[in-house]
Backbone:
């Protein structure tokens, strides 16, 4: 059989070419595939020019309590998300409908937060405000520098971009906002125009801005 297979120079040449082709062909396409990934932005370790966009979503919650003078209400927001967290906004609002207008008789609130149950432990906030709409607002940054605006990144790797916009698990957990009501009255026993001012409805709203990354390679101009 070997005599038939290698019985001529032509047969030997064909056999050698076949062996070389069998070795080189897979290696060639492996190299080409890796090159295509790098050119198309598939290689996260290659430095290139990238378009970075943020696909955003909002997670909201709201709770209302009726609070009397000196009474404290504790409002809770349990935040869990598989998406990255950019920042969290907290709004405290109330309306003193029993008073004739702004002035010494306007009810007010004192607001304090407790973020000890939140991963990453953001700094606590505090504020005071009148019950004339929005009494207090807070914006707590979770991912540094995040504002939701897309941009071009040049001379960096995809992995570096992903690392920059990773919230590292921060912001998850129990957000506590405590509100203490201060009922201000005009006249005896809080009697204003026949209406006794003794309490107000206070609403705390939360909005967590969530996002995922959309990173695409920008083709180089020829």
Residues:
């Amino acid at each position: 059989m070997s005599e038939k297979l290698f019985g001529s120079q032509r047969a030997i040449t064909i056999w050698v070419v076949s062996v070389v082709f069998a070795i080189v062909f897979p290696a060639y396409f492996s190299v080409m595939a890796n090159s295509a990934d790098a050119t198309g932005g598939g290689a996260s370790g290659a430095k290139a020019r990238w378009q970075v966009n943020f696909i955003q979503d909002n997670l909201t919650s709201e709770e209302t309590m009726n609070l009397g003078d000196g009474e404290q209400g504790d409002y809770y927001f349990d935040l869990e998300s598989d998406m990255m967290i950019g920042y969290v906004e907290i709004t405290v609002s109330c309306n003193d409908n029993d008073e004739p207008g702004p002035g010494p008789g306007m009810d007010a609130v004192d607001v304090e937060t407790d973020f000890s149950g939140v991963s990453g432990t953001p700094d606590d906030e505090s504020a005071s405000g009148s019950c004339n709409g929005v009494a207090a607002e807070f914006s707590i940054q979770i991912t540094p520098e995040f504002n939701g605006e897309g941009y071009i990144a040049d001379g960096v790797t995809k992995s570096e971009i992903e690392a920059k916009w990773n919230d590292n698990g921060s912001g998850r957990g129990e957000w506590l906002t405590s509100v203490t009501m201060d009922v201000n009255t005009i006249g005896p026993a809080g009697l204003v125009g026949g209406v006794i001012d003794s309490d107000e409805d206070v609403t705390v709203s939360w909005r967590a801005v969530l996002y995922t990354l959309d990173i695409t390679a920008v083709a180089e101009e020829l």
Summary: The longest helix spans residues 9-40. Residues 105 and 184 are 5 Å apart (CA to CA). The chain has two domains: 2-40, 48-217.
